[in-house]
Every structure is written in C-alpha cells, then in structure tokens.
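Slides due. Your pick:
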Amino acid sequence: MVVDQHSLDELSAEQLREMAARLMGQLRHQSALLEKLSYENALLKRMKFAAQSERFNTEQRSLLEDEIDADLAAVADAIDALNTQQPTAPETKQQAKRQPLPTDLPRREIRHEPDSTTCQCGCQLKRIGEDVAEKLDYVPGVFSVERHVRGKWACSQCETIVQAPVPAHVIDKGIPSTGLLAQVLVAKYADHLPLYRQESIFGRAGVAIPRSTLAQWVGTCGVRLQPLVDALKTEILQRRVLHADETPVQMLKPGDGKTHRAYLWAYAPGAFEDMKAVVYDFCESRGGEHARKFLGEWRGSLTCDDFSGYKALIASGVTEVGCLAHARRKFFDLHVANKSQIAEFALEQFARVYDIEREVKELNANQRQEARQHKARPVLDALHEWMTLQRQKVPNGSATAKALDYSLRRWDALTRFVDDGQLPVDNNWIENQIRPIALGRNNWLFAGSLRAGQRAAAVMSLIQSARMNGHDPYAYLKDVLTRLPTQRASQIGELLPHCWKAIAV
C-alpha cells in the first residue's frame, strides 16, 4: 500500500490510526508467515542433507528426494516474495558463482536486437557491445541410421566378385547398433528404467521398439558379456583382501505368480587394494553355501559383518576382518534411544579411531600399520578394558549389554586392522557399492527369474566397476560391445573396467 505525503495530510487522525493498525496487522501476518516458511525451509534442508547412513535409509531418500527438492524450491520462492514486500536495510549478498556450461555442447545462437536502430532524435545507432546469457536446452533422444554400404567389385575377365565381409556384431543381423544396445543396458541397470518405460520413451522419439524386442537384446547382451564378468571375478579372487555384503531382492516364483526373498551378494577388493571393481552374485537365498561357492579356494582376509553365513568360510581358513562401523552403530542406536552415557563415551572413542583413519588414509600399507600401532592401539586397548568393566555392571539381556557383547565377542576381528595396514577399518566400501541395488529395487519390484537376476548382476557388475574407475558406463559398454565379438579370449582382460582404455577415433 503506497500513500503519498499529500494524501496523508488530508487524512484525519482517526483515518491515520486505522491505516496504522491495518499496516501493523499486515506486517505481523507477513512476519509470522516468514517465520513459518523459514522453519519449513530448515526442516526440509535437514531432511535432505542429514547423514543418510544414520537417519534415513537409501530407499526412503530415493522416494523423498525429488519431492524435497521441489518443496525447497517452492519455499525459497515464497520467502523471496515475502522479503521483497518488506522494507529492509540494504544488504550486500554474494551471489554463488555459476559454473560455465560445457564448451563441447553444440550451440544455437538466438539474436535479440531492437526493432529499429534509429534513435528518436533521428541519428543512426552504433553497436558498442553485447550481453550474453547461456541457457541449457534439451531435446529428447534423437535416433539416426548407420548405412553400412558394402561395394561389390567384379572382374570382367574372370567374373570374380570381391566384397568386404560383414563386420562382426554382438547381435548378428539385428537392427541395433552397439550405441543403442549400450543405451538400453545403461538405462535399465544404471538409471533403473524398466523396458516398458524405455519403450514409451523411444515411442515418443518416433521409433516403435516393442519391449519384447528390447528384452531379446538385453538377454543376448547378457550372454555376450558374461565371459567378461567371469574374468573380472577371477581377477578379484587374486586379491588378498576382499569385502563381502548382501542385500535382499524379491524374485518371482515360477508358476504361482508370487515372490520370495532372494539375495544379491557383492564382492570387492579391499579398499586399499590396487584394483577398483565389484562383482554381484544373484542367488536364491542367503545361505552361506553361496559365499563358499563364489570364493571357492580363495583364502585371504574377508571384511564382513557378523552374518552366520560367513562362519563356515572362517572355519575353513579365511581370516575374518570385522566391521567397526557395525559395532559403532550398536552404540549409536542405544544413544538415540535413551541418551545413554555409556553409549556416548563409546561413540567418542570410536570417533577418535576414525579420526586416526582419516589421517592415515593416503599412506602406504607399512606407514599405515605403524601409525595405527602408535595411535589407534592405545585407544582400542583402553576401550576394550572399559567395555569389559562396564559389562560387569549391566544386567544380561539389556540393550546396553547387547551393544557391549557385540563388540566384546568380536574384538579380535574388529581390531585386526591395527596389525595389517592393508586391511580396512570397516565394511563401508562394499556397502557403498551395494547402494545402487537398493535404489533399483524401487523400480524393479522383483526379478522375473533366477536367470534374469543373474543377468542383472552381471551387467551391473560391469557398470558399477566402470563407475568406480571413473568411466562413463555408456561409453564403456558401447566400446566393449563393439570390440567384444573380435576380441581374442587371451586378451579379454583388456576390456575389464579397471584396464579399459577407449580407442581414439
């Protein structure tokens, strides 16, 4: 409401009081609304940026993330609108510097010039410069056609006909290029787009590809890529230190249309090994025999949780390396539940150990072992003595007793990393590699069969391993699918994600 000085002079005292009361009411309303929106904004930011490992599991975040981002934008707009309505002291606000758009993107120039370059005085205007603003545009996937023209050459004397052979392809006599096959695989197993959604996307781009055809392509590619996954598994089993973890995935039972709980197991070289890779193994259950079958004759140091399925491996000669994060989590849950002082002290000691681990992360194995012996060993020895004493004071069966017992029973395994600089302190490395599976479950709903699950595990092994080595999964799969039909079996290792190098065109 804007009133000039002349109008104010003409108002009576009663009218001025009414106006002042009305303006004060508006100000109180806007202040209350601003306070409400600021609180909502803080709450949304806490939900979005809080430590997901302890406050929200990955499934919850994947379901809520988009809505939280949309709400944050809406609240921010509302707050900006309110602030512009209220007179405030001038404030110098530093704007975040926006990163320039990639220079390799094609650019379409749109000119905006005055309708007339003649001044109102009649003179001709001269151009003295320009302002440029770039906006990122997007056009849905565009298809193109590769025309492979093979000329026929004939001899007029002997009537011999010469023609270049048909290039080897992953799918003989099929219509998809390796680029299209790579796109379908990455969309399905990295972006979690089921084939019926891809069918709709391709349809909107003007190309009708039935999902049954897409499924055939996926099945064929899975078979062609399996030798690569087998070679990756062989190389992983040559490492002395491995991580292992497993996560449930629903699998459709044949015949009755119901699902049961299957498991996707994950294996990766130790966090300090010189190889970055992961291999997923889809199995019908969580039975320990699956881990024994996968690892075979391997006998090294296995970082894992306290799942009983690994116990037979340990009994057969595998060295158990405990996960300190799991032990810490027991006390974290205890502290959240009742603000336990015992849990608080334990968490402080675990934090000291993790501070040391951050210091030694970039050291070599010998230096890391020496630093752990000097710094972490006294902390852990004191913590063990303290835990033993506290356990004598708490009743059996209590939550505190269970948290203490978890660590005390597995103390040797939990602290084994102190004596070996190549061992990790916890199993978080493999848990990070298994998170994409938890995200995908929201879109898959279930695996259609054991074979489908195993095929998904194989392709996801290559995709996630490519990511771990800094490769674009699409570029990697496209190149691998192009070279695989003519690659010698003895040189298959060149196509593994940690060895792969794109051929310069």
